[in-house]
Design a protein that fits this description.
- By secondary structure, the protein is of the alpha/beta class.
- It has two domains: 190 residues, Rossmann fold, CATH 3.40.50.150; 63 residues, no CATH class.
- The chain contains nine helices and seven strands.
- It has a seven-stranded mixed beta sheet, with helices on both faces.
- Strand 6 and strand 7 form a beta hairpin.
């Protein structure tokens, strides 16, 4: 499915994530409950590396960089980083990156504005499942990969540990809020914010600030597309592209999983 086939839906995707990252306060707000240092360590694990020095000099594409803080942080590992996002968050990221440590571009994972085999590493975490056709975006983005390709996507509800009632309620809220007008969408998010904060206080399973929780709520309830997959399905996509070294390297969150493919040969042309 081409990104231009559904312009109104794509406009909603852009607005959803532009609003989400407009909530972010640089240097103060954590992303997904993790600071930049913790996210860098997680990245090294996701890349299945024992020695971070292996990253030095490599060219990385952070495809769907969001607020861009991780992209900037990864440059301290010796990586040359290009950060890309479809939303207007790239403009805030550019303003934050005063020392110009990375290159920041606005673009789509479904139509990456790069030549084939440009990047040693392509990293796309929590992005592909928000596209109209996740597999199509996966294949198009893969054309830019030279060595390592990592994707993190949502897991099917049937594979999650959470109660079915909770997951069904989550799904219904997502559909209602994602299809609401902008002002009503924000009102609904503020209405459920106290509930989310109270639940966090009672369960003590996280310590998000109200702003961090608002970002989480926007991420969970405002996207028009939120496709879900089984690990073997995504592994199959890597195999279709000729990847021989494929490994699930991130299962820390119940809602999704990350898969790394190494030394791919792009065999599918779109």
């Amino acid at each position: 499915m081409n990104i231009v086939d559904k312009p109104q839906e794509i406009k909603k995707v852009i607005q959803s994530f532009s609003n989400e990252w407009a909530e972010h306060e640089y240097g103060q707000t954590r992303t997904w409950g993790l600071n930049v240092g913790q996210r860098k360590q997680r990245f090294i694990h996701q890349m299945d590396l024992l020695d971070p020095n292996e990253l030095k000099g490599k060219l990385l594409l952070d495809a769907g960089c969001g607020n861009g803080e991780l992209s900037i942080g990864l440059s301290t590992l010796g990586l040359r980083v290009v950060a890309m996002d479809l939303s207007r968050s790239v403009y805030r990221a550019k303003a934050f990156d005063k020392d110009k440590k990375i290159e920041i571009v606005r673009g789509s994972v479904s139509h990456p504005p790069f030549k084939p085999n440009t990047f040693d590493i392509v990293f796309s975490s929590g992005v592909l499942h928000h596209n109209p056709d996740t597999k199509h975006a996966f294949i198009k983005l893969s054309t830019t990969v030279k060595e390592r390709y990592y994707v993190w996507v949502y897991k099917k509800f049937s594979l999650m540990k959470a109660s079915k009632l909770k997951l069904y309620s989550y799904h219904v809220l997502n559909k209602i809020i994602a299809n609401s007008p902008g002002k009503l969408q924000t009102l609904l998010l503020y209405m459920i914010l106290p509930v989310a904060m109270l639940k966090q206080y009672i369960t003590k399973n996280s310590n998000n600030t109200w702003r961090e929780m608002m970002i989480l709520n926007r991420d969970g309830f405002t996207p028009v597309y939120a496709h879900r997959f089984e690990p073997n399905e995504v592994i199959g996509w890597f195999k279709e592209l000729g990847y021989k070294n494929i490994k699930i390297t991130d299962t820390e969150e119940d809602c999704g999983f990350g898969i790394l493919g190494i030394n791919g040969i792009n065999q599918i042309k779109l």
